[in-house]
Design goal:
Length: 109
């Protein structure tokens, strides 16, 4: 799954193109972008609101590594997601999109 922020797009770039670019910049992976899973609006606390579009994605190449804005990047099984802190309701979004089974706990964060 990869996301694209509306404010993070280059001029003329589609949301899917922005998501593929962001995936590479943040993870080192080349990805094929699939369907849009959801869109959420996230208040920034200073009056701005970020519009975030998340897409299904399939890795097609590259080497997994954390980008300059991340401490770590790694793969998790759906079962392992119960053991790590997640963005609020991320597991719920993933389950509703059919990406993972219904979570056993509410994700917090």
């Amino acid at each position: 799954m990869v996301g694209a922020r509306r404010v993070g797009r280059a001029r003329g770039e589609t949301l899917a193109e922005a998501a593929a670019r962001e995936a590479f910049e943040e993870t080192g992976l080349l990805v094929e972008i699939g369907r849009e899973l959801w869109m959420v609006e996230i208040p920034a606390g200073d009056g701005r609101v970020f519009e975030v579009h998340d897409f299904a994605a399939t890795p097609t190449g590259g080497t997994l590594h954390a980008g300059d804005d991340a401490l770590d990047v790694r793969w998790f099984t759906p079962e392992e997601l119960d053991q790590v802190p997640l963005t609020h309701d991320l597991a719920g979004y993933l389950a509703r999109a059919g990406i993972i089974p219904t979570p056993h706990r509410q994700s917090g964060g």
